[in-house]
Amino acid sequence: MTTTHSPSETATAPELSSLDRCDSCGAQAYVRVRLQSGELFFCGHHASEVKSALASTAMEWLDETDRLIADESI
């Protein structure tokens, strides 16, 4: 599994937008998991719940939950 982390200090734009929604609850997604069968999107809460179950089969784990902390300073 490849873990991708996008720190908020970098100049690159986030890959996930407010249009990406959590597949579990519909909240804004901050984590995208790429599996061989497709992609799953999760909010920070649900991503932490499923991480151990999906870690062994995930091809990529994009985690932008650091944006939650950055958004609080606005």
Largest sheet: 4 strands, mixed
What's the mean pLDDT score? 87
Number of strands: 4
Which percent range describes the beta-strand content? Answer: 15-25%
Structural class by helix and strand composition = alpha+beta
Shape: globular
Count of separate DSSP helical elements: 2
Task: Please give the order of strands in the largest beta sheet.
Answer: 1-4-2-3
Helix proportion of residues, in percent?
A: 10-25%
Number of domains: 1
Characterise this structure:
It is a single chain. This protein is globular. It has a four-stranded mixed sheet with strand order 1-4-2-3. It has one domain. With 74 residues, the protein is α+β, with helices and mostly antiparallel strands. The protein has helices spanning 44-54, 66-72; strands at residues 2-5, 31-35, 38-42, 60-63. It starts with a strand and ends with a helix.
Summarize the structure.
With 74 residues, the protein is of the alpha+beta class. The chain contains two helices and four strands.
